[in-house]
Amino acid sequence: MKKIGIIGFGWLGEPLGHHLKEAGYTVVGSCTSEQKKERLWADGLHAVYFKLSLIRRAWRIRHFFRWMCWS
To answer: 24 with 43: CB under 8 angstroms?
Structure first.
């Protein structure tokens, strides 16, 4: 299985995620709203909701990639 992570399903990350999904990848990434997370999941992209302070950001990103690589 091919898996790839995208930090930020924004104006660049979301179209890239759809393209990679069509190419056969499992795509995991982050977004900053629950509504967008639900829409991305419905579209087949594995979105994780991130609403972080700067202090906690590094720990959460590390945890996100650990989850992405080992699940």
So the answer is: no
pLDDT, tens digit, 9 for 90 and up, residues 32-68: 889 999 999 999 999 988 876 644 666 667 666 666 6
Give 13-28 pLDDT, tens digit per residue: 999 999 999 999 999 9
CA 24 vs CA 31, 43, 59, 60: distances in Å: 21, 14, 29, 27
Q: Which contiguous run of DSSP H or E holds residue 46?
A: strand 46-49
| Rounded Cα gap, residues 38 and 70, in angstroms | 23
